[in-house]
Specification:
The protein has 16 helices and 18 strands. It is α/β, with parallel strands linked by helices.
């Protein structure tokens, strides 16, 4: 299923004792990189495909896209034959939870593991090898700020990181430390002030906030130019529309609408579409998260056979496989409920797409059982199964995600002057979305990582993670 994991079985048997973590050298770009005879999928608003092009990258920028027959004469350039390949912007996962040591201790309710269990480079390698060059961390912690500094400084090879700290009630769903508490409107306003002081551009609202506190958060955020995203609180209370307030810009799960009623109500989808359309609220899909949860609930033993989970640090792997909360809830009633959510999600995202509401690709990677990096390709295929066309899926993972994050002047399209965050594929993703898995190379800030180098990064990670 996963091309770059095909060698896993032999590796896990033959690997020597685990090594100390050894992150790759800081990302650097050669003076010039020339990709010749490649088909460019620019993902610009104009759309279209540019066959037989030569793309020139200098430093971290695209400086030329020309017809291949024009010829490019650059001495000492690193030349790549792109014949039979497709060049596309790097992918975005707009809903992730990046692991760190304190997060694991809070989730496990234990003072262990010790610091260093979640090696920063190891957290990011699964994203890089899958062409995921932008992530949106929706439970940002101070550690996340440090991770972003390490990536942007070039000391760690990873995706760009957008961040949103989580705000919930004084009886939060997730532990304090992962989430902040706001039990009153005044506390909600203070939480936004704190986020602004810490330099965050987004805040995430969570499921147990009351309407008054939610309203105060959105109002304070508007005043401070902080953008509000997240869940629709107070599920099942019949007040869904009240939360669609100006400034609430993004719902981060399709399942949020499924859970607004006691059981998912497909007949309510048109009203949900209208709420989002009138409020200019976009949607992150996360279809694959619910599909994985259903798979786990049906067969908890399937976790042990999941090759993609081997990319997790050992303590995270143990939590996902041996203490998985979805496996613990496995029952006929729970299975039926999750199945009803899965059956609801497809028609919902299709209706949103048909209404012109942006569908951004996200996976909830980091929750137990959803593998970082690899799950985004699962999400692409789930969206195709739901009825979205391949071009729309790719737009949601490139240009539309960049536009939402406000970085579309830097990345998200293949155009002159844009950052060279790119994926080179050896098959056409517009004809078959599964071809996004067929990665020949990843280009991060102009640094060319061949298939061989990507496999070496993954090889090193798996060798150290094996049990």
């Amino acid at each position: 299923m996963f091309r770059c994991l095909a060698f896993l079985a032999g590796l896990l048997i033959a690997a020597p004792a685990p090594l100390a973590a050894s992150p790759p050298a800081p990302a650097t770009a050669s003076d010039a990189l020339v990709i010749e005879n490649v088909t460019v999928i620019p993902m610009t608003e104009e759309g279209g495909v540019l066959p037989n092009r030569t793309v020139v990258i200098e430093g971290d920028r695209i400086v030329s896209i020309a017809f291949a027959q024009d010829g490019i004469d650059l001495c000492d350039a690193n030349r790549i034959d792109g014949t039979g390949m497709w060049l596309i912007p790097g992918f975005s996962d707009m809903h992730v939870h990046l692991g760190n040591d304190r997060m694991l201790r809070l989730l496990a309710g234990s003072p262990v593991p010790e610091d260093g269990a979640a090696n920063i480079q190891d957290i990011f390698t699964p994203y890089i090898v899958n062409g995921v060059l932008q992530v949106f961390d929706l439970a940002a912690m101070p550690e996340t700020v440090g991770q972003r500094i390490e990536v942007e400084s070039g000391r760690v090879l990873g995706p760009h990181i957008a961040m949103a700290p989580m705000i919930d009630s004084d009886d939060p769903i997730l532990p304090f430390g992962i989430t902040q508490s706001a039990a009153t409107p005044a506390e909600g306003r203070q939480a936004v002030k704190d986020a602004a002081a810490d330099g965050y551009e987004f805040v995430k609202v969570y499921g147990r906030l009351d309407l008054e506190t939610f309203t105060a958060i959105v109002d304070e955020a508007r005043a401070r130019d902080i953008r509000v995203i997240g869940h629709i609180p107070q599920r099942g209370k019949g007040i869904t529309e009240a939360f669609f307030q100006p400034g609430f810009e993004l719902i981060v799960h399709a399942e949020e609408f499924a859970q607004q009623t006691r059981s998912p109500d497909i007949t309510a989808i048109p009203s949900y579409v209208e709420m989002a359309r009138k409020n200019d609220t976009a949607l992150v899909s996360t279809l694959t998260a619910n599909e994985r949860i259903l798979e786990i609930a049906r067969d908890p033993g399937s976790l042990a056979s999941r090759v993609d989970l081997y990319v997790l640090p050992p303590q995270f792997y143990d939590f996902s496989v041996n203490s998985n909360p979805y496996a613990a809830q496995s029952s006929e009633g729970y299975i039926q409920y999750v199945q009803s959510i899965v059956q609801f999600n497809g028609p919902l995202v299709r209706a949103f797409a048909e209404a012109g509401i942006p569908i951004l690709t996200g996976t909830d990677a980091g929750i137990p059982g959803v593998a970082p990096g690899f799950s985004l390709h699962d999400e692409f295929e789930a969206l195709a199964e739901a009825g979205l066309d391949n071009a729309s899926i790719l737009e949601g993972s490139t240009r539309l995600s960049a536009e939402f994050l406000g970085v579309d002047d830097d990345r998200g399209t293949v155009a002159v002057g844009m950052r060279a965050d790119l994926v080179l594929l050896d098959a056409d993703p517009l004809s078959n979305i599964a071809n996004t898995r067929r990665i020949a190379a990843v280009i991060r800030d102009g640094r060319y990582l061949s298939r061989r180098e990507l496999d070496a990064l993954l090889d090193d990670l798996l060798e150290r993670n094996r049990k």
